[in-house]
Design a protein that fits this description.
With 280 residues, the protein is of the alpha/beta class. 28% of the residues lie in helices and 26% in strands. The chain has 2 domains: 2-180, Alpha-Beta Barrel (TIM Barrel), CATH 3.20.20; 182-278, Golgi alpha-mannosidase II (Immunoglobulin-like), CATH 2.60.40.
Length: 280
């Protein structure tokens, strides 16, 4: 895997020995920022254009010479999350802040325009006094491409056991939907206080999942999510991953899209997965 980070595309140049337009001396401004020298000038747009084309050429040549190499686009915390980079890389690191809320916000925004399977979240260490909070932390990075960025030797035995369960579930049930299903934003943009959620559903696979996240508000133990993309004339079996078989139910697509499914979580900063399966 190759990750290229930082400001890879120049935004200006004081030189004239390259294909971009030469600068007008009176317009040049050269200054330090974050340990680098920056250049602004009359030719900045043209320099950026040619630098971007060169950046794409590097990736194209790498792909040709090393087809098994994974190319991660991580330029400056997601500033180059765009269609050009998507055509040349394999996946994006969408944000340089790795707490659960930041990961869900970055995913929520980028998934409006880019394939969710390309959207990576780094899951860093985060305070999790309860196993429900630990599960919430992991799942906040499992909306798309999951990358663990923690020292797992610091995990308790209970956290290790929980992580094994969640990783197996991600690989077997969530990742196929992330790759193939349609994505629906069934709640407002995450704010950490109120509930938020994302739905995947595949008509071809006849199944899907609702990711439900509870915020910090102490008086909101229940939220109703109106689902999308279902067949109103079909019935769906709902399985609540954390609540056991007693919570499972069968509801019509019409009911789920009109009235929604109620999710109850006892603890703030917790989560659940609600799996949907269309009945014949």
């Amino acid at each position: 895997m190759l990750e290229q980070d930082g400001y890879l595309v120049a935004q200006g140049s004081s030189r004239s020995d390259h294909p971009a337009a030469p600068p007008e001396p009176a317009s040049l401004r050269i200054y330090p920022d974050s340990g680098y020298l920056w250049v602004d000038g009359s030719n900045s747009t043209d320099v950026s254009y040619h630098a971007t084309r060169a950046y794409y050429k590097i990736y194209k040549r790498l792909r040709a010479r090393h087809p098994a190499l994974l190319l991660e686009v991580c330029d400056d915390g997601g500033r180059m999350v765009d269609f050009g980079s998507a055509a040349h890389g394999d996946y994006f690191s969408t944000t340089d802040t790795y707490d659960p809320l930041s990961n869900r916000r970055a995913f929520y925004d980028a998934s409006y325009v880019l394939p969710p399977a390309m959207l990576e979240s780094y899951v860093a260490r985060w305070p999790a006094p309860r196993i429900e909070n630990f599960r919430y932390m992991l799942r906040s990075g499992m909306l798309g491409w999951f990358s663990l960025m923690q020292d797992t030797s610091r995990w308790s035995p209970a956290e290790r056991a929980e992580a094994r369960v969640q990783f197996a579930l991600y690989k077997s049930a969530l990742r196929p939907l992330i790759r193939e299903a349609d994505l629906y934003h069934v709640a407002p943009r995450p704010d950490g206080v109120h509930w938020d959620g994302i739905e995947y559903y595949s008509a071809r696979m006849r199944r899907g999942v609702l990711y439900a996240f509870r915020g910090t508000a102490p008086d909101r133990p229940m939220h109703r999510f109106r689902l999308l993309g279902l067949n109103p004339r079909r019935r769906y079996r709902l399985k609540f991953q954390d609540q056991g078989a007693a919570a499972d139910r069968v509801l019509s697509g019409r009911h789920l899209m009109r009235d929604g499914v109620a999710v109850t979580l006892a603890w703030p900063l917790s989560s659940d997965l609600v799996f949907l399966e269309e009945l014949h």
